[in-house]
Amino acid sequence: MSSASGEQPGHPLFEDYQTLPGTFDEFYEPSGELRPQVRSVVEQLDRIGKREFARRRKVADANFFKGGVTFAVYSDQRGSEKIFPFDLIPRIIPASDWRRVETGLKQRVTALNAFLTDVYGDQRAIAEGVVPAFMVEGASGYLRQLRGVRPPKGVYIHIAGIDLIREPDGTFVVLEDNARTPSGVSYVLENRTVMKRVYPRIFRDAGVRGVEEYPVRLRKALAAVRPESTDEHHAVVLTPGSFNSAYFEHGFLARRMGCDLVEGRDLFVDDDRVYAKTTRGPARVDVIYRRIDDAFLDPEVFNPSSVLGVPGLVRAYAKGNVALANAIGNGVADDKGIYPFVPDLIRFYLGEDPILGQVTTYVCARDDDRAYVMENLDKLVVKAVNEAGGYGMLVGPKATKKQHAEFAERIRSNPRNYIAQPLIELSTCPTSVSGHVEPRRVDLRPYVVTGDQPWVLPGGLTRVALVKGSYVVNSSQGGGSKDTWILAKR
Amino acid sequence: MISRVAESCFWLSRYSERADTLARLIDVNLAFILDVDLPAEQHWLPLVTVVGEGERFAELVGASADPDTTQGYLVWDERNPTSLSNSIYWARENARTIRETISLEMWEAINDLWHWLQSDESREIYKDDAHAFFAHVTSASMLFHGLCLTTMSHDEAFDFMRLGTALERAQQVARIMDVKYHSLGPTGPGPETSLESAQWLAILRSCSAVESFHKRSASSFDGPSVAAFLALDVTFPRSIRHNVERALNFLSRIQDAGGLQGRTSEAEVILEDLRVVLAGHDKASLVAAGLHEMLTEIVNQVANASAAVERQFFSSAVLSEDGATQTQ
Fold first, then answer.
1. CB of A446 within 8 A of CB of A161?
2. pLDDT by residue (tens digit) across B291-319?
3. How far is B108 from chain A (nearest CA, A)?
4. Contact residues on chain A for B254, CB-CB shorter than 8 A
5. What is the ipTM of this complex?
6. Does A418 share its domain with A459?
7. Which of A31, A185, A467, B135 is the most buried (most CB within 10 A)?
8. Looking at A246-376, which runs of residues are DSSP E strands?
9. Residue B175 shares a structural domain with residue B134
10. Residues of B whose CB is below 8 A from A277
């Protein structure tokens, strides 16, 4: 399509959109028809036209800068600000699809929480052969010294981010669990603020469910898990500091929840109780929403060289004097080596069949699976179980012979550390790419907040692989984001 | 509020004020040295002395350095903890760690200033038109202070920022006034040379006080009158007494908000003593008491008050007997 004709008024936004063969598209049927559940909203977007869309893009950019939505990365001296690229075409999920996702997520998080309770308790799942002991003990996130410690109110996973993808038939399945410190929710809220300004009319007509209550829900969940022992409730957000790439989000959530944002050096432990150093003297803290990894949380117990944490924090936690959200040791629940066993764990703890499916996974620690993986490296995606963010990964069909050989060697020397999955054709969503609208692959990270009960944010972070043909949606690897619209009706 | 955050608020505004004052001082001195006939090493050395850098400068650069080198030491040198460049760097560093506390506009103002200072553009301007360089720094500082007043809530964080500004300003004005002592010697009641008058005028200009001074004391322009105005005037926003009173005011707001009404803090005692001393002076008694000695005492007392603020509000790491606050 020539750019000259594209700038004429009246050219529909999606006029020359082509779906990818063999891939589920979020808006269009393979025949090129709009999917009925999203048709009316997409038609409204289409009618905006290319020229007007470009104008609104400018409005949005100005809003991002002026409104303070610069997702800042202050990793260098000069304080450069990087912006997580944001696409103005929303991802739209019909109410019927979402209902299934919502119940499925609650079920999965409840089971994962039960698994953590068990792993750090009686270990029935191991005793009864549901999950092999070596998979649990070999998980880097498993902290044996925490066996017997129960978190306040029994909640381990206060905030979960469960990454979902759509299979070629459109079914949502789980790609990955995040039960430690899932990030990104601030993008969801800030993206939404901008989208409402950019599409006020479409927004109202479409009946999009709100995401604004997230901080209130999180705040309530934090209050719900406060230990009984304190007179006054005082929750804080614990950040590694302003050099952390998610610092913006830490400050954002603290502000929205009305909590103090603290660093490790702002807290201290006395007589197994946690205090914040304030201008009015030490103030008791009973709930900590911590955005510091386990390994850096308490130099007395974990990494002794960590200056980010609070000496004695784990003692206070073990005594039940402070709630940590999320709990310590959650890494075993979202370990990629445990993932293949989650459907069985759901059946085991809840006596229910899993509502959400997941990707077929080969566990390299199993002899049969490993033999298959070694034979089929050119067809599979191999993942190191301890890596995140798209690192430590072999995308077989796209890799060279040399890379295949290298991964084969790595798997042989440490099979426990690797799993493999078939390459999934992630669904595509129309995405604006330098003036054109083209299909780009997306995933979805919904957020589940648990205090008394699990609650699912109606929305989530849709990550999009902006690089043509790419399957990797992580922001560190050229990914961007989209606003996720959950429709209220139909 | 969290002590570290309060401390960063306090120092953010101190460093910002320090940069502003230094820029004004150097800018005025640039014009002053063109008008008077002073030995070259006397052009900038008094400034180095009043910012407390005499010894380090002598050791690192040498007291007989040429004027450009000395000026560069005051503006750019990373080894000089009070250099303009370091003050702006530390203002930004403090701001960076409390971005959730200050407004976006404040952050952008201080961040922009730092980036500008790092740019080739600012170096060019510094070389070609030094006055424009310092004018940029002072207007950026004024923008920052204006944004502080108009874009952030006037809560405890704000009070700590204003407390920092008041203490820094009181101290800096005392230092600026002492330039006269270090370049031309003590100020007495007798007739003064035209050089002395020129320097007092320069000092007034460094404090943006020329108009205010003339409105107040239209008839007489001499050293003791200028000194009395800058030290003792109640209403002029850069006078020492005015800033001591403002510091007391913000301290008591902080104490009241913390439910500590009626309790007197160490910092309050120090500043109140200083306020009483200033209130008891007039032009004649100020000169009779020895201006340089007075100014030295003011600088020291403000430093003591600042240290007391640090102890009381920023280092509450120890539980006291009753498990509550650990003030005295």
1. yes
2. 999 999 999 999 999 999 999 999 865 55
3. 10
4. 279
5. 0.82
6. no
7. A185
8. 260-262, 267-270, 273-278, 281-285, 287-290, 323-325, 357-358, 362-363
9. no
10. 2-4, 315-317
